[in-house]
Amino acid sequence: MSKKIRRDRKLPIMKRNKQIDIQRALALAGTFNFLCSCARACLLPFLTLYFRQRGLTPAMTGIIMGTKHLVGLAWSPVASMLSKHYNKRRVVINGSLVCSAAAALLLLFIPPADVHAQTGNCKMSDLSSSQSLGLMSSAAPSTSARTQPKLNTAPVSHTAVTFPAKTLADNKSASVLMNQTSLYQHNEPHRQSSQENVSAAEPNISSSIVHHNISSSAARNKRSEEQQGGKMTEEEKKESHFEFLGSLKMMDPQHQLFFLILIIVSVWESAAAPLEWTADDGLYEYLDFADASDRYSSTAVWGLLGAACGVGGAGLLVSQLNCLVAGQFPRSVAHFYCYACMAALALPAAAYLPLYLNKKRDRANALLKAVQLVHGSPHALLCAATTLLVGAAGSAVDNFLLWQMQDHGSSELHMGLSLALALLSQATFPLLAGRVSKLLSPGRVLVVGVASLGLQCFYYSFLWGPWAAMPAQVLSCFSSGALWWAVKVQCEEVATPGAERSVRRVYSTFSLYLGSGLGSFAGGFVVQRFGLPWLFRGVAVGVMLWCLCLPLLQWRAPRKCRINYSRLLAADASEASDSDSEQERDWLEKAMEDDRSNNKYGRRINH
């Protein structure tokens, strides 16, 4: 016995499997979605404004944004499948956060294409005043040294304020032109005056010309010496940089800037595209393994709240900064640094993000089956066409709404708060979904959502002040919230059990990538040709026409009758119970009678 006991003691103790904490997993997933959405909202809504400040045209901006969406459309599913195949999901998520932040910061090293590039509201207020004061202070000693004190009157200060403000980057040429115009303005009255004044003014003018020639020759000699010594000023470095680009491709600086930004944005999107799909797939498979996949949709609300906080906070922060940060950078660079900081904060959450690899689940086949399900249902095809149109219209709003607001005096504060209000109103629709579903069918809710988007676009074309866009943002509760709720219901009607998420991804891909890409291309050329107000009016007219056609098409489209397997099982059970009820009752009565007879027989024997 003792030997057996000793052997039992030597047996290893089995470790208990760790229990899956669903609440902790959902908290980590919600935090990660909040931080990632906050990071994107700090920069992406304001990105087209930065392109405008750099000197890009609307058509160039539309091409860049359209290319960004198409790169995401092609690379997101491929990167997600590769990360699953090689089991490198966490590496892809962390690498995407770091590389996307680094690629975004590369845009700050590209100089503007033109000295007349817009800098927002700072160009007419603080920036012009600061530059004019600097020019006046630099021009004061030169004018006093070259001209008489009597000639340095009000016309000189007037030219110093207005004319150089248009060419802020070229201070030297502005000061020279100012002195030449001041001399020309003050020479005419002296020629018409007496001979004594002319004889008194000529020595001063000739001395100023001689002094100017001496100073210019000295400047040339000094520049030649610096070039011989291997030293170059910042302006000469910029000029040589653009000359080098021009030697490679015969382009003007604006097109060089366009191609540089296009390349950097494509690299940036290639780094950022795998993040969302990879994290969503890993989290969904983790919750599915724990039999809690029904709670996956609860993390989407945190994404909307994070986007609202990001866009509102970034707008508030940038509006509090000076027009020039560190004396030379525009304050719009703060959006890029906010994006990089929030991406860095998301790294700890990504390190502990719950992920699971289900090798049996084939994502490619699931997407193909989802496309087949959508293609086989006429109502699903109408819903897909609607999301495609909504994506194209939404890209016009996302790319050029802030341009329209800026033209009417809105600052970053007005822009950030208006976009945050739209996101918060979109997040409140699930609270109204129960009441709306009792009043309207999902097809009619889809029509209401598209009509609300058309009203928003029509309202945007008639903005009149900084806060004018705020009332229309409340309609986002129906234009975005109601529309995606109707798409979700359509996915549940079309999809087979377990394929709802794949069908929903087909709709989101149509809207977010393909529709937005096509809308960005078209919207840029429309703004280039007709202007911002006509872009929003054209989008509104197109969306309203689709609203008139959609109910008719929904009524004419045949609806397939789906087989509800749960009802069939219930019906089979009820029919079987009706037919077999008599047999079950006979069997039960016989058993009860036998039991009673056995009890009576046992009692008799005991007695």
From TrEMBL:
Residues 212-237, 575-607 are annotated as: Disordered. Signal peptide: none annotated. Residues 32-537 form the Major facilitator superfamily associated domain. Keywords: Membrane, Transmembrane, Transmembrane helix. It is found in: Membrane. Pfam families: MFS_1_like. GO terms for cellular component: membrane. Its main location: membrane. Residues 222-237, 582-598 have a biased composition (Basic and acidic residues). It is a multi-pass membrane protein. Belongs to the major facilitator superfamily. MFSD6 family. This is Major facilitator superfamily domain-containing protein 6-like. It comes from Cottoperca gobio.
